Amino acid sequence: MATSLPSHPIGVFDSGVGGLTVVRALMDRLPFENIVYFGDTARVPYGVKSTSTIEHFTLQIVDFLQRQNVKMLIIACNTMAAVAAEKVREISPLPVLDVIESGALCAVAESKTGGIGVIGTPTTINSNAYARAIHQMDPDCRVYSQACPLFVPLVEEGWLDHPVTRLTAQEYLKPVFVEQIDTLVLGCTHYPLLKPMLSTMTGNLKLVDSAIAIADQTAELLQQQGLANTQRGMPDYRYFVTDVPLNFRNVGERFLGRNLGAIEQVSLDRL
Amino acid sequence: MATSLPSHPIGVFDSGVGGLTVVRALMDRLPFENIVYFGDTARVPYGVKSTSTIEHFTLQIVDFLQRQNVKMLIIACNTMAAVAAEKVREISPLPVLDVIESGALCAVAESKTGGIGVIGTPTTINSNAYARAIHQMDPDCRVYSQACPLFVPLVEEGWLDHPVTRLTAQEYLKPVFVEQIDTLVLGCTHYPLLKPMLSTMTGNLKLVDSAIAIADQTAELLQQQGLANTQRGMPDYRYFVTDVPLNFRNVGERFLGRNLGAIEQVSLDRL
């Protein structure tokens, strides 16, 4: 593999469209960085698949992004981060950040009482990856986790502040609220779109948005490693998906908060 | 390919677990038939994927089932039936039934006023396949379709008669109820599990369950073609899935209403 250069793009990947919330945070925080995004839209969602299947798919994507000469990797999918982050760090010579480590770091820094709630997909929650990461950083934290399987379909339906979504959130969050927490980690890249609704329900709780957390850590990492792009032109954004991009564009522009431009489809056979 | 024999199994396939509602109806209606079920759990759901991807996956499954010596094929997935049924009939020498044709036939037979509502996943509804099938059978029918993207995740969450599900159903069905319909087709294999809740909301509407419709048509087809199994022993049921079977078993036994027995995992590379 060629040496990484500052002008090379950041590689961001996700099982589908959700990781665009991370891309959005990166664009805001690092407006001169080139970005290559990969969304595995033909095989989304990963949250219901097994560990070995997720690991297999993840390594295919990493291999593809390395062939695009990315200078670092960001695992923007909580499910892949929970299941396959270790494996990615093992096989890739590039710096790797993942949303779980970033979310955990941010939660530990933000929490004053050490009581931290985590919400995510069933696979993320069952993997216990957030609790493990948080306990590694601070063994005194108490972590309360809750799977919210309906949040992703509700966000993709666009019901961001709908009575159904509100009722679903009340049902899911009831057991979390009875615990003494002061911080709630949005452990899925779809959830930042629910932040306005959730913040009206959670009162004084601090909501940790791992998209923003990982953008901050990316800035720091690029500085430390001398990999920050010094060119000041318009950055180049490329989007690769494994299925026909129609639905990706419709939902994705809501996630990204701007136009997506060209989207390239990659056949699964090329992975 | 070897000639089909009456003792050969019926091949039923779906993108995941939903087609087990068809298997259940077959077991009840045809208790001596052997059945091979294929659920593509590593790539579920199909409802959000593109036409070409769905077609590609479908033909892989048909090929696999033909290698299991099935005597006929049942497309138990509405999305695959909507997108790929024609293609399957083109390439397979076996008799093929699909849930859309069966549901449409049953709806046309049941409706007295010719006003028929259809609910399903976005892909099924956008394909317009039910309306097309119904109009081919009776051009005078009026068809009103409504996509219900949240019903599948709600069923898989097990919220079969939950306030959230009820509120979601009210929202989705509102525009259908204002039309003059007397029949509502449950155009997704997950929806029969919502039948008890839906029937309390729909009053005098006839609910068409395509699982039951297709079981009736299977019985007829096997008789006509001399393919009904004459052996009277315990039938053999085999279940193939593409992902680790844990989740398939948990949700599947609810769909099937009985124990699943052995489940075999097929690697995607073997398709």
TrEMBL record, chains A, B:
GO molecular function (one): glutamate racemase activity
A Pfam family matched in the record: Asp_Glu_race
Reactions accelerated catalytically: L-glutamate = D-glutamate
Pathway: Cell wall biogenesis; peptidoglycan biosynthesis
EC number: 5.1.1.3
InterPro entries with a match to the protein in the record: Asp/Glu/hydantoin_racemase, Asp/Glu_race, Asp/Glu_racemase_AS_2, Glu_race
Active-site residues, record numbering mapped to chain: C77 (proton donor/acceptor), C188 (proton donor/acceptor)
UniProt entry tagged with the keyword Protein biosynthesis: no
Family indicated by similarity: Belongs to the aspartate/glutamate racemases family.
Name of protein: Glutamate racemase
Naturally occurring in which organism (per UniProt): Amantichitinum ursilacus
